[in-house]
Amino acid sequence: MLGVVNRILLAVSGLVLLAAGASVLAAAWPLAGRHAPLLTEEARRRYWHAEGWWWWAVIAGLGLGVLLSLWWLLSQLRRARLRAVEVGTGDGAFALLRGRALEEAVAAEAGALDGVARCRVVLRGRRGSPALRIALELEPHAVPADVLAALAGPVLTHARASAGLAGLPAEARLKVTTHKAQRVT
C-alpha cells in the first residue's frame, strides 16, 4: 500500500514540477512575461480584500496538505519489522518472543543449508500472525529447488514449532552470487 502511495506522490510531484518548469521556461501563464508582475493589480484587489471564505479555503487546503505530508513522512519512518511475536504458553496466557531472536534463529538455520552463501531474514506482519521475508544468496553450484525444499521443510517447520505458531507464511527471494572466472595458465 505504501509503495503505491509513494509512486503516486512521486508521479504527481514530478508532473507539477514539470509543468511549473515548462511554464517558467516558456514565460507563459502564470507569468505574462519577464518584466510583468506575478499578480496584477486587479488580482491583488480581488483576492487580498475578498470575502472571508477565500482565506479560510486557502488555509484549509494548506493545512490539509501539511497534515497529509506529515502522515506520509511518519509512515516512511515507521519500522516495518515486527518487534515481538505472541507465543501461547498453554495455560491461556501469552509470552512474547523477540522478533530479532526468531529472525536470527531462522537466518542461522537457513544460512547453514548447503549452497547458501548468505541469508537475511525480516519478520513482518502482526503479533498474532507474523510472516517471514527471507533473502537467500546462493552459491554458483547450488540447486535452487533443493535449497527451497530444505528451507520450506525443516527450517520453517522448526521455526513454527519453536515459536508455537500454527502457520508461518514465508516469502523467499533467491539470488545467485557471481563468481570470478577461473583462468587456466
Order of helices and strands: HHHEEHEEHE
Strand order of the largest sheet: 3-4-5
Into which percent range does the helicity of residues fall? 40-55%
Distance between the termini: 55 Å
Averaged pLDDT? 83
Number of strands: 5
Tell me the number of helical segments per DSSP (H or I, 4 or more residues long): 5
> The biggest beta sheet, please?
3 strands, mixed
Portion in strands: 15-25%
Radius of gyration: 28 Å
Structural class category? alpha+beta
The general outline is elongated
pLDDT < 50 runs, ≥5 residues: none
Written description of the protein model:
The structure is a single chain. This protein is of the alpha+beta class and 185 residues long. It has helices at residues 2-26, 41-48, 52-77, 99-111, 144-163; strands at residues 84-88, 94-98, 116-125, 130-138, 170-176. A 3-stranded mixed β-sheet has the order 3-4-5, with helices on one face. α4 runs antiparallel to α5 (144-163). The radius of gyration is 28 Å and the shape is elongated. The mean pLDDT is 83.
